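Supplementary notes for students who missed Thursday's class. We covered one full example, reproduced here. Read the sequence, then the structure, then the short commentary at the end.
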Amino acid sequence: MYVNENAIENMEVTLKIAADKTRLKILFSLLDEIDSLKGGREVEKCVNDISAQIGASQSLVSHQLKVLKDGDFVKTRKEGTKIYYSLSDEHVQEIIRVTYEHVMEKLL
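Structure (token representation):
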């Protein structure tokens, strides 16, 4: 099987972005809301909401959201002066879910 070297390098960068405790908590915060809704409606949160939910400062959350946005894990929508964040697509949702399930199998 031929493995595209460029793809491998991009996978490495993608996995490194996700490999941070605060960023994982942020992603879970956004994923949790989607999972709890029937019909798969997209939910958005502002920095204040995420900060309160994960117990981190607004400045830390803002910084980590920028990293996640630059890595295409989250997308934004601006309304007035507020910026709302959501997961960028179903691939991000799946990465988080599958990784969590994989880890939980080993823990139980």
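Commentary. Residues 51 and 101 are 25 Å apart (CA to CA). The chain has a mean pLDDT of 91. If anything here is unclear, bring it to office hours.
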